[in-house]
Amino acid sequence: MDISVVVPLYNEEESLGELTDWIGRVMRENGFSYEVWLVDDGSTDDSWRIVQQLAAANACLKGIRFQRNYGKSPALNVGFQHATGDVIITMDADLQDSPDEIPALYRMIMDEGYDVVSGWKKERQDPLGKTIPSRFFNQVTRLVSGIQLHDFNCGLKSYRHQVIKSIEVYGDMHRHMPLLAKWAGFRKIGEKVVEHRPRKYGSSKFGLSRLVTGFLDLLTLMFVGKFGKRPMHLFGTLGTLMFLIGFVASIVIGTKKIYALANNMPGILVTDNPWFYISLTTMVLGTILFVTGFLAELVARSNPDRNHYLVKEILDA
C-alpha cells in the first residue's frame, strides 16, 4: 500500500465527511493505494457515528475509538500501530491541513529519500495568542534539538514506514516526533511549506498550557534520548563535580583557619563562616546526586528494553 493517513480527532463531527471526500479525491487523481485511520480520541459529539457511516461506505476508511479522551499523542501512536502504508501521513481533522499536500509529501519520502518531512505553516491562519507562543517554542526547540525546522507543531507530516515502526509516541510527544526519529537514527529530516487554511468548523482544542507541557516534554525527551540507558553518566558526573567543589572549598576554609591559629592571627570560627555551610551543602547534594545515579542505573538495567537496538540490515553469507 502506498499511503496510510492517520487522523486523530476529537469532536470534529462537522468536518469528517468533507475531509475524507477530499482525501479520497486526491488519492484517486494520483493513483495511490491508500487507507485512512480515523482515531476518535473519546469524542463526546457524533464523531464516532459519522466515522462508522463513512467506513461502511468506503473500505479505505477505518476507525479506532478510545474509551475516553487520552490526547493526540496516544491517538497517533495507536494509529501508527495499525498503519501499513509505505508512507504514513498525519493531519488534523479540522480542515486546516490541506490533503492537496499529500502527493508532494509522498514524493519527498519515496523519490527524494527523506525519512521525515514536516509541514511548515509559513502563513498561519491563527490568532496571535497561538502564533507568538508557537514561534518562541519553535526557536527553543531548534536550539535544543539541533533540527532546523520552522514549525515543529504542524500536524501535517509524512514519515517513512520504518520510522513510525521504530518510535513510540506518548505523553504530548507528537510535537517532537522529528526529534524522536533523529534519536532512532533517521537523520534525513526535511520540511515543506504547506497551506494553512482558516478553521471552518468548531474551535481549537488546544490552549496556552501546551506551551509549558511542550517544554517539559522536550526536556524529558532530551534526557531520555541521551541518558535513558546510562543515567549514571549524568547524575554521577554532576554529583562528583559538586562533591569535589564542596570538598575543595572545605579544605580551603580549614587551611585558612589552621594558618590563622598557627600565626596567632584573628579569625572567625569555622562554624560561624557561612561558606562552610555552603560547601557542606554542596557536598551533601553531590552525594545525593551520585546515589540517585546508582538507583537510576538499577532501574535502567531492570528495563526489559535495555538491549533493544534498531538494526537497519544484516549481511550474513
CATH topology of the largest domain: Spore Coat Polysaccharide Biosynthesis Protein SpsA, Chain A
**Can you summarize the main beta sheet?**
7 strands, mixed
Q: Widest sheet: strand order? A: 3-2-1-4-6-5-7
Helical segment tally?
A: 10
The name of the CATH architecture of the largest domain is Alpha-Beta Complex
- What share of the residues lie within helices? 40-55%
Mean pLDDT: 85
Broad shape:
elongated
Succession of helices and strands? EHEHEHEHEHEHHEHHH
| Unreliably modeled segments | none
The number of strands is 7
Q: What is the assigned CATH homologous superfamily of the largest domain?
A: Spore Coat Polysaccharide Biosynthesis Protein SpsA, Chain A
What structural class results from the helix and strand content? alpha/beta
User: What's the domain count?
Assistant: 2
Write down the CATH class of the largest domain: Alpha Beta
> Radius of gyration from the CA trace?
26 Å
